[in-house]
Write a structure and sequence with these properties.
- This protein has five helices and no strands.
- By secondary structure, it is mainly alpha-helical.
- The radius of gyration is 17 Å and the shape is elongated.
- The two termini are 23 Å apart.
- 23% of the residues are buried.
């Protein structure tokens, strides 16, 4: 059972980190290069809507599986990397919740009304937060892998 729960935990993390990598390193630069603001902002809003739905599912799986795996261990004996990964993961969840409930909502509302300056501002607020979560995600992977 533990191995299946760990598989779900890792899979959900891969979806979240992989999605951020795709958006940051591939989609965003190409969209900026090839598309004018209205098309680019519509595309990013629609892509992020789909991706963020997957992130919510990933968060649910990561939290449920992570808490379950931690419950199987004596926390005093758990590796330091597990504690670091837990703290970083919770911080990532809080940052994502902020993205979802603040700038992403503003992005969707601005795109719906074709308010391109407001949409650009909201998307500009999302980008550094996603970069932060991307870095924190890799720090969590590093912590749990190296810090035993």
């Amino acid at each position: 059972m533990y191995d299946w729960v760990k598989f779900l935990h890792l899979g959900a993390g891969i979806v979240w980190l992989g999605g951020m990598a795709l958006v940051i390193l591939a989609l965003r630069p190409v969209a900026i290069q090839l598309l004018q603001a209205p098309e680019r902002l519509r595309l990013m809003s629609d892509v992020l809507s789909r991706f963020f739905f997957m992130v919510w599912i990933s968060i649910a799986l990561i939290l449920a599986s992570g808490f379950w795996m931690l419950s199987m261990a004596d926390m005093k004996l758990a590796p330091t990397g597990w504690h670091a990964m837990s703290a970083l993961g919770l911080l990532m969840c809080l940052i994502f919740a902020h993205i979802w409930f603040a700038p992403f909502r503003r992005l969707k509302a601005a795109v719906a009304t074709s308010d391109w300056p407001a949409a650009g501002k909201a998307l500009g607020q999302i980008h550094p937060l996603v970069l932060t979560n991307f870095a924190l995600g890799w720090l969590a992977v590093l912590a749990v892998t190296v810090w035993r």
